[in-house]
Write a structure and sequence with these properties.
It contains ten helices and 29 strands. It is an alpha/beta fold. The chain folds into two domains: 260 residues, Spore Coat Polysaccharide Biosynthesis Protein SpsA, Chain A; 90 residues, Hexapeptide repeat proteins (UDP N-Acetylglucosamine Acyltransferase, domain 1), CATH 2.160.10.10. It is globular, with a radius of gyration of 21 Å. Its EC number is 2.7.7.27.
């Protein structure tokens, strides 16, 4: 167990290609897999590895995130010593600097008792054992360890993500970008392991010079001046940085093998518990290959879809290859295909919405389709 490790989650992920779902929430708070949020994966991975001190840096548009996290009880982080700490940068609506955020909260780092730190974003969906990565870091004697994933579909996936150039000893020689010209790539998972003292030195250098806006930028630009190693993660990985990747990640979870790996392989994935009644399936309803959360009422036809809590699908409605978030209502004889519907949306009787698997239709929060 990683008792001597703390973690800092920097939620300054780029969300320009997923704005339809992030206008009123940070990317980390987007619902996924029916009853979870994107941040649940990295949070659960950390606590399953024994980390009990987690600081979260987020911008001012974080009401839904704070409501979801609460005191951290679902992740056993509601503690008198250590626990969950949320630092909200009020007034910032887009990309913010984690350097600026930490500069204003250095006391949190100094007062933390742990001597090592794991820095991560939230938009890399996986189930990873951080304990193995930390042991690799300690045994390698490196200054920083970057967790990465070898992929063979770089021409179509993980575009514009950072790529590690490694030698035969897994030492990082340089950092580039995936511009889609090669399939085989070493994709950075934006997860870094280092001593807390080194993090403090990095922050002081950034504050002093003003040359870098984020911790990851400093690390990537100074890889030649430090001993930086790469740790290979070999499990399932999905980067949620666009509407298409979000849709694909949800559809992947309908695959039983991927579902078992994501939610059970290195410990469970935890989320906020709502204590709702089971979903009710009426006579004449039909459900096939779908994930359906608690509290819903299903009278119609649902196949290959993700249905969140408290969704009502009336008789005669047909839902195919869709993601429907909580508190939505699909009226009689409506037909939905390849559609992502945000929370609190009403689709009226007989309406038909159809997207493409490559370009699903997105219905924004609190919309009314009559």
């Amino acid at each position: 167990m990683l008792n001597d490790y703390m973690s800092i989650l920097t939620l300054n992920e780029e969300d320009g290609s997923i704005k339809g779902l992030t206008k009123k929430r940070p990317l980390a708070a987007i619902p996924i897999a029916g009853r979870y949020r994107i941040i649940d994966f990295v949070l659960s991975n950390l606590v399953n590895s024994g980390i009990r001190n987690v600081g979260i840096l987020t911008d001012g548009n974080s009401r839904s995130l704070v409501d979801h996290l609460g005191s951290g009880k679902p992740w056993d982080l509601d503690r008198k010593i250590n626990g969950l700490f949320v630092f909200s940068f009020s007034g910032v609506n887009s990309f913010f600097s984690d350097i600026e955020m930490l500069k204003n909260n250095m006391e949190y780092i100094y007062r933390s008792r742990q001597s090592k730190v794991i820095i991560s974003s939230s938009f890399m969906i996986c189930n990873i054992d951080y304990e193995q990565a930390a042991r690799f870091h300690e045994e390698s004697g490196s200054d920083i360890t970057i967790i990465y994933k070898k992929i063979n579909d770089g021409k179509t996936h993980f575009l514009n993500r950072n790529v590690l150039n490694l030698n035969e000893n897994s030492e990082v020689l340089g950092i580039g970008k995936n511009i889609g010209t090669e399939n085989n790539q070493n994709i950075s998972m934006e997860m870094f392991i280092m001593d807390k003292s080194l993090l403090i030195n990095i922050l002081n250098s950034c504050i002093k010079t003003g040359f870098w806006s984020t911790i990851s930028e400093w690390i990537y630009r100074n890889c030649n001046n430090l001993n930086i190693n790469g740790y290979e993660f070999k499990g399932y990985l999905k980067c949620i940085d666009s509407i298409q990747s979000y849709y694909e990640a949800n559809m992947d979870m309908l695959n039983l093998d991927i579902n078992k790996e994501l939610f059970f392989s290195n410990g469970l994935i935890y989320t906020k518990v709502m204590d709702e009644a089971p979903t009710k399936y009426f006579n004449g309803s039909y459900v096939c290959n779908s994930l359906i959360a608690n509290g819903s009422l299903i009278q119609g036809f649902v196949t290959n879809s993700i249905i969140s809590r408290r969704v009502v699908i009336h008789k005669g409605a047909k839902v195919r290859n869709c993601i429907i978030m909580q508190n939505c209502e699909i009226k009689e004889n409506a037909k939905l295909t390849n559609v992502i519907i945000d929370k609190n949306v009403l689709i009226d009787e007989g309406k038909e919405l159809k997207g493409d698997r490559e370009y699903p239709v997105v219905i924004e929060k609190r919309s009314l389709y009559q």
